[in-house]
């Protein structure tokens, strides 16, 4: 069977926006034309009516929780959430139980991802055992087993010697080293950003120097080793400045920012019970938020990654002192960015495609399509950008509902997601959600 998508809005190879008819056969895009295509009798025809068709989105930072924490999310539910968000490739974090810290575990994990994943689920290996050990894991073996990169996400690498050894090993196998920046000695048991807001709420604040001092250290180590160093969830103004300077110094550094650090800051926290505003790194100041926006727009920050961090309702219960760190992101990313960056006129559709497709694919050397063209693998997502809706936790395909964006009205909705030419999400038959109102 062939799939004919009529009247889709695309960003073509030159970056121009055009209206096209797109023919998909097997796992490939066979034709992209501006004239009518006569469908065969058994062709599946979809009227796009101007919906935006792009290569499937790529998220280099997700938590799928399986094995170890299946009450929060599984590979099946996480990848359904990804498909519903228009993502066709994700890179899954290793804060699992067991942590994939040797080749046998990594291979098992890749098998799980392959068997249960509705989309392409790549896997990071851990820098060290338990995400905290000072001895670096067997990175060469893990790379040979298929690790896409290395990180202890969830924990900062406390020792410079450990980080240096990890970078040397990652450089030797030509895989990226991804850093969750958190110097434990500067955290003060913080549950939000240190400063006036934390004081007003009477909550312990984490010093932003925990991020920036470790970043400064790592950039120096990255320069010395030549490793590809990738900054996870960059959240501070000084951090953006450090990355900017490092790039001019020739350090091989890339950086991601999360939608929530672009769109929220600590002033959004009105009460300690709003636990869906609790995550690591914490929401920072308005000046930090402005700086990460500017950094994304000027290319200092390369890409957006959601840090999809599902937690159960029980884990997010209580207040900032007790609730788990982290929020979901896969199902709200596109509409939030579309609404606040494209519709508002701050950026173009081509830039959005850069942040969510091209930059992640190129930084992590992924075999994913990055531009809509004939012959491309049919990993595709289509978004209705005339559709406005209010984000509703009941509709999430994720097991989790811990999103601070529930209740916000946004523009843009995934209508179709395809992986290798197979439809993995279709809004017209979407019945993935199933959360009770009072969950
Ligand atoms: N971002 C978070 O607040 N939490 C993440 C861990 C992480 O990304 O550091 C999680 O695994 O829940
Ligand atoms: Zn992290
Ligand atoms: Zn994370």
From TrEMBL:
UniProt keyword list: Hydrolase, Metal-binding, Pyrimidine biosynthesis, Zinc
Gene Ontology terms: cellular component: cytoplasm
CDD domains named in the record: DHOase_IIa
Pathway it works in: Pyrimidine metabolism; UMP biosynthesis via de novo pathway; (S)-dihydroorotate from bicarbonate: step 3/3
Residues reported in the UniProt entry to bind substrate: 63-65, 95, 280, 311, 325-326
Dihydroorotase catalytic domain sequence ranges: 50-237
Enzyme nomenclature, EC number: 3.5.2.3
Coiled coil: none
Catalytic activity: (S)-dihydroorotate + H2O = N-carbamoyl-L-aspartate + H(+)
Positions that bind Zn(2+) 1: 61, 63, 153, 307
GO molecular function, one term: zinc ion binding
Cofactor binding mode and count: Binds 2 Zn(2+) ions per subunit.
Origin superkingdom: Bacteria
Binding, Zn(2+) 2: 153, 180, 233
Cofactor: Zn(2+)
GO terms of biological process kind: 'de novo' UMP biosynthetic process; purine nucleobase catabolic process
Catalytic residues as annotated in Swiss-Prot or TrEMBL: 307
HAMAP family in UniProt: PyrC_classI_B
UniProt similarity note: Belongs to the metallo-dependent hydrolases superfamily. DHOase family. Class I DHOase subfamily.
Role of this protein: Catalyzes the reversible cyclization of carbamoyl aspartate to dihydroorotate.
Protein name per its UniProtKB record: Dihydroorotase
Organism listed in the record: Furfurilactobacillus rossiae DSM 15814
Gene: pyrC
């Amino acid at each position: 069977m062939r799939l004919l998508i009529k009247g889709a809005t695309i960003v073509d190879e030159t970056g121009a926006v055009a209206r096209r008819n797109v023919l998909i056969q097997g796992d490939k895009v066979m034709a992209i034309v501006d004239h009518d295509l006569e469908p065969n009798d058994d062709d599946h025809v979809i009227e796009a009516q101007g919906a935006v068709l792009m290569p499937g989105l790529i998220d280099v930072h997700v938590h799928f929780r399986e094995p170890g924490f299946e009450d929060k999310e599984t590979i099946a539910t996480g990848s359904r959430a990804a498909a519903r968000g228009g993502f066709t490739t994700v890179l899954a974090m290793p804060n699992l139980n067991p942590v994939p810290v040797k080749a046998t575990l990594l291979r098992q994990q890749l098998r799980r991802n392959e068997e249960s994943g509705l989309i392409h689920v790549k896997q990071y290996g851990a820098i060290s055992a338990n995400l905290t050990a000072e001895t670096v894991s067997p990175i060469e073996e893990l790379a040979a087993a298929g690790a896409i990169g290395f990180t202890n996400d969830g924990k900062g690498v406390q020792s410079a010697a450990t980080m240096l050894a990890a970078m040397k090993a990652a450089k030797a196998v030509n895989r990226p080293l991804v850093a969750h920046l958190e110097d434990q000695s500067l955290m003060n048991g913080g549950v939000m950003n240190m400063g006036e807001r934390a004081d007003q709420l009477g909550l312990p604040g984490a010093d932003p120097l925990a991020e920036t001092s470790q970043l400064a250290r790592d950039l120096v180590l990255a320069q010395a080793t030549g490793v590809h160093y990738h900054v996870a969830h960059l959240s501070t103004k000084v951090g953006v400045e450090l990355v900017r300077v490092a790039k001019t110094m020739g350090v091989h550094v890339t950086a991601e920012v999360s939608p929530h650090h672009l769109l929220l800051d600590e002033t959004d926290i009105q009460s300690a019970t709003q636990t869906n505003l609790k995550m690591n790194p914490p929401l920072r100041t308005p000046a930090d938020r402005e700086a990460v926006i500017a950094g994304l727009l000027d290319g200092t920050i390369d890409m957006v990654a959601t840090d999809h961090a599902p937690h159960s309702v029980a884990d997010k219960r209580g207040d900032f002192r007790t609730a788990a760190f982290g929020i979901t992101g896969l199902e709200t990313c596109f509409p939030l960015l579309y609404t606040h960056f494209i519709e508002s006129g701050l950026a173009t559709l081509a830039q959005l495609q850069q942040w969510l497709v091209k930059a992640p694919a190129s930084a992590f050397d992924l075999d994913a399509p990055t531009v809509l063209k004939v012959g491309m693998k049919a990993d595709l997502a289509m978004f209705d950008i005339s559709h406005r809706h209010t984000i509703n936790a009941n509709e999430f395909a994720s097991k989790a509902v811990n999103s601070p964006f529930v209740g916000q009205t946004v523009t843009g909705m995934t209508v179709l997601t395809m992986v290798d030419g197979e439809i993995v999400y279709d809004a017209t038959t979407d019945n993935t959600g199933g959360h009770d109102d009072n969950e």
